[in-house]
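Deliverable D5.2: sample structural annotation.
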Amino acid sequence: MALAPMLLDLIACPRCHGKLREEADGQRVACVACHVLYPIRDSIPHLVLDEAIDSKSGEKTSSIAEGQKAVRFREKPSQSAPRSFYLEYGTCKVVGRPPNDPNRTMVMHIDMPLVLDESTKGLVHQYIRKQYSQLEGKDVATSELGRFRRTSDVVLDDSSVSRVHAMFFFDGHTVGVLDLVSKNGTFVNGQEVESRVLKIGDVVEIGDTKIVFEG
């Protein structure tokens, strides 16, 4: 049975927020913008990135859509409802714990600024020059971190997280994470990293907190 046109008007691709259309076989919906397929089960489209298939290669997607303006991260909780944050093109976010009270009750708070010392800023600048040199000359606001505009930070209620633990970047093509010489390290899919370009579905572990990159 074909999907109701009203339903297709209400839903959107979770990857790029583009318009969806039903495939002729009635088994999948396709994103018009980024050409990704999602399965239909029991007349319900399953818009889950883990199940998204590239319509050209037939393989699961792992990259960012061309022209995508923002990417999404989601906390992977054991019990509580997941919280999420977005990273816009040309921006970065610091992840750390509250500077004054490490035990305050905040699972994920994004309005509290974290202070970077000069040594940490130097590490960030070095990483940006090495990993994101393609940003030079593009129309991105210049800030204390060069071509990356730092937006509201992510503050975690997690005593195993350093005051300034890691930083996420999005240059419009790739998303990266940089460990800021944290005490307990930053892990991607269980492997400790100094820095890493992320793929959709990667799980970043910062202290005892797990954050999924959803794209």
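Annotation notes: The longest strand covers residues 36-41. Confidence is low (pLDDT under 50) at residues 102-107, 137-142.
The annotation will be released with the project's public dataset once the embargo ends.
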